[in-house]
Amino acid sequence: MNPSRTIKVLSRIYLFVSAGSFFMVSMMGFFSPQAVMDLVQVKLPNNDAFSSIRGVYGGVGLTITVMLVRWALKDIQQGVVFLCWLWGLYAVSRIITWTVEGPLGAFGTQWLVIESVFFILGALLWLRWQRSNLAVRG
Fold first, then answer.
1. Which positions ≥6 away from 73 have C-beta within 8 Å?
2. What is the pTM of this model?
3. 125: closest CA among 60, 56, 72, 53?
4. What is the signed CA dihedral for 33, 27, 41, 34, rounded to 10 degrees?
């Protein structure tokens, strides 16, 4: 495999693994909003709360899933850029929480590590895409 093909394959794997994770949470959000909130020990008190979790984790999560699959098939580089920002900002939001509200629990810490790793992977792929694009132009 030449470097540009390797970057494409690794980027597609990155996009599909991320899409799969968003899809799993999205389905949980659609079919059992309380199960999503059980992960952080929060009890949904009313139908508006259920609706909000279903919308954000279900609807928005499925939208992200669809776009990631589309990008994996049609515009890999754009998908990598999107995911790099998404995972990075997820990690930043947890770091802000840690700074403002105090240390994260086991769930938050685990996801901070996962989101940080996915951000770093995305950043490395993004940099490789940039280098590949420069080589093509140069």
1. none
2. 0.90
3. 72
4. 20
